[in-house]
Amino acid sequence: MSDTQPSPTLAELVLQVRKTREYGRLTDAIPYARFMGIGVEHLAGEMLCRMTYTPKLIGNSFLPALHGGTLGALLECSAIFELLLQTETQRVPKVISLTVDFLRSGKAQDTFARAFITRQGRRVANVRVEAWQDDRTRPIASANALFLLSEP
Amino acid sequence: MERCSLFYTDIVPHNHALGLKLLDIGPAEAVVELPYADFLVGNPETGVIAGGAVTTLIDAACGSAVILRFGRFLPLVTLDLRIDYLRPARPGTSLTAVAECYRATRQVAFVRALVHQGDKSNPVASAQGTFMRLEE
Fold first, then answer.
1. Contact B80/A at CB under 8 A
2. Chain B within 8 Å of A84 (Cβ-Cβ)?
3. Which residue among A24, A62, A84, A150 has the highest number of C-beta atoms inside a 10 angstrom radius?
4. Does any CB of chain B come closer than 8 Å to the CB of residue A111?
5. Rounded to the nearest 10 degrees, what angle do helices B2-9 and B51-70 cross at?
């Protein structure tokens, strides 16, 4: 593909990234993911999300701890990227409901998340997501989310 | 109101980064606005704001409602938050969260919230959360 062609639509971009695994191209196309420093990485054979720490993610300056909303955002973005890259959905899935459990406070450092599609129907997908920092066996937050998929 | 506004200007960096504004307060109620901004977009094809930004708006509004219910600044943590997305948000328009702490025990507070875009009878999202006071 030459550089002179117009930039691909999001659906085209998703199709390309599913093949090439150049995840940065997809996360760069989503302004909020760029703002939050949320990216997708392929590590040891699995797809993870990383939210790179910056001071603007802090919710409590005294502890300091990450804002609860930033963990919710990471969990939700992680679920959306999992659905976009691992299923056949053509458009960004729409979140129907999201339940987040905050298990430990988030420290001022990078946070990781991994999403698991627990059920995928024709129209609805259930996704479970966990976020952690130093120790994957001690998650700091988890979520169950329900998404509406576009039909292929 | 002025003291509570500090959570949106100075004390909580992420609230400030998103541009959250405290619009109004009640005895156990907080009204918080998330102005529309291009950097908050989650779907570049529709211009709809990312769910994560809405989650943060709700978390901030609910936390403020709890602090207002207790009547003084307390270190708080969110235990859980459930959000139902009732309809897609209109791009280009700010979102307003109205949060009410309807029950508080010594340690745990229960909050519900609605997010709307000017018309409370046509909300974008509804939420319920629980918060806990940290030991002092």
1. yes
2. no
3. A84
4. no
5. 150
